[in-house]
Design goal:
elongated, four-stranded antiparallel beta sheet, mainly alpha, 12 helices, 489 residues, single chain
């Protein structure tokens, strides 16, 4: 329908422009033909007069005759020129009038098109509004599915690494100040009432309804529900605007919706940063506990080494005295005993020196690579660090009560700077972290050869790797389960 209407308008415009142009060019052509014909008649009359004078010797005042003819021709030329000017003027008037009529029709067509497009735009906006309202009602009835899950920590992606919850708190205050400014400047909501009291009442109605819903949403901010809360606010916006149509289209402005969504973002940021800092403090406390265990372990090792050295030194003294007093048959026995005691003393001194060295150099330790197929499945590895004098004690602790099966050790890497080595590996496998929300859990979904290659590329070589996990308890449990199924069958 709309296409046919536009086509008819274009045809009318084309006719109004072309027809006057055709008429104007036709008039100009007729004038040009008449002028050429008069010029030909003048030339013919002059030629005929000359012929008569030469042929009959008539005394004819050719010059006077010619002059009369020329005057007549000039007169006719002036008339033709005036006619041409008149034609050109008429043509210009006709063309201008056609242009004016065409512009007028184009303006009318443009206004009509805008009216049609405006109606279509209004219809589309209403359709979008109804669609949003329907989705909002469905969400409120059926609940918010996992489609709206957005990790809370994603709101921190654009923040600097050192950005803390105090700075986020300041941003939250600014967002709330902007909300108050929009309300004060009457930019938060609007309606189509002309009468002031009704307009104010309608605007306050939708504002109170929307703000009440948003405040309820903000009170539910937790560490894992940002996406659902964001959608709840958008749904509240759709429903309040839908109900506001009964009050001369009373509605919340888009800018105000965005300001409240910004408030939610900063509220979640504060919550997430607090959680992040608590996790960091937890890691620090764990490190302190680990360091304390390592310190006590080293102190105990030093004391035990010192005690053992004293006992061995005393035993050596006794052995030497016995050797000096022994006869030839007994000397061989006491010499062997003395050598054995000297070896044990050397080992005790070495253990004591190692414990002292570990205590003095606080960054020395072991980075371990372990797995637990029965608990976490294939190709999941924990990369951690311990400063224990006996690093396997730490691995045993991890498998004591928190998981059903013991961990398998694939590599135990000694490093002069164990924290840096651990951090480098964690950074390299950050994208493979199993827990995307809390990567400090130190579990990574990556193959063991890739981990080994990364360690070797960091310049750590001569490490013994156990590439296949024994997972003895897990495999035995599977075997028992199969036997039980066979018996039941």
């Amino acid at each position: 329908m709309e296409t046919d209407s536009n086509l008819n308008i274009n045809l009318v415009i084309l006719a109004l422009v072309i027809i006057p142009l055709v008429i104007a060019f036709a008039i100009a052509y007729i004038a040009r033909v008449r002028r050429q014909k008069m010029r030909q008649e003048r030339d013919s009359a002059l030629a005929e007069a000359n012929t008569l004078r030469e042929k009959y010797g008539l005394v004819i005042d050719v010059e006077a005759e010619a002059k009369a003819i020329l005057d007549d021709a000039a007169s006719q030329k002036r008339k033709v020129d005036e006619l041409e000017k008149s034609v050109e003027s008429t043509r210009d008037v006709i063309i201008q009038r056609a242009k004016d009529q065409a512009d007028s029709l184009l303006d009318k067509a443009r206004v009509e098109a805008e009216r049609i497009a405006g109606n279509a735009l209004e219809a589309k906006e209403k359709a979008d509004s109804y669609k949003s309202a329907i989705r909002a009602m469905r969400n409120q009835i059926e609940g918010y599915s996992d489609d709206y899950i957005i990790p809370n920590h994603s709101v921190l992606d654009d923040l600097a690494e050192e950005f803390g919850h105090k700075e986020a708190g300041e941003q939250l205050k600014e967002a709330r100040a902007n909300i108050k400014m929009l309300i004060k400047e009457q930019q938060a909501a609007t309606c189509d009432y002309a009468e002031a009291n009704r307009r104010t009442t309608a605007i306050l109605f939708v504002l109170d309804a929307f703000n009440g819903k948003v405040d309820t949403v903000l009170s539910k901010v937790k560490h894992d529900n940002y996406g659902k809360l964001e959608q709840e606010i958008k749904d509240s916006y759709a429903l309040v605007n839908r109900h506001g149509e009964a009050f001369r289209n009373a509605r919340i402005q888009g800018a105000y919706l965005n300001s409240r969504l910004e408030e939610l973002r900063w509220a979640v940021s504060v919550q997430e940063l607090k959680l992040k800092e608590r996790e960091e403090q937890k890691v620090i406390r764990e490190q302190i506990r680990e360091e304390e265990k390592a310190r006590r372990e080293m102190e105990k090792a030093i004391k035990e080494a010192e005690k053992e050295e004293k006992l061995l030194a005393k035993a050596l003294k006794t052995a030497r005295e016995q050797l000096d007093a022994a006869n030839d048959d007994q000397k061989a026995e006491y010499e062997a005993k003395l050598a054995e005691l000297q070896g044990k003393l050397s080992e005790a001194e070495s253990r004591g020196q190692r414990a002292i060295s570990m205590a003095e150099q606080t960054r020395r330790g072991h980075v371990y690579v372990i797995s637990n197929i029965g608990s976490f499945g294939e190709h999941v590895y924990k990369i951690g660090m311990t400063r224990r004098l006996e690093p396997l004690d730490r691995v045993k602790e991890l498998g004591d009560a928190s998981v059903p099966f013991n961990f398998d050790v694939h590599a135990m890497i000694f490093s002069e700077d164990a924290p840096s080595l651990e951090k480098q590996l964690h950074r390299q496998f950050h994208q493979d972290s199993v827990n995307k929300v809390n990567p400090r859990k130190e579990f990574f979904g990556v193959s063991l050869p890739v981990i080994r290659q990364a360690v070797e590329q960091l310049g750590v070589a001569d490490i013994h790797w156990t590439m296949k996990a024994e997972a003895a308890e897990y495999r035995e449990s599977l075997a028992v389960a199969r036997e039980q199924e066979t018996v039941v069958a």
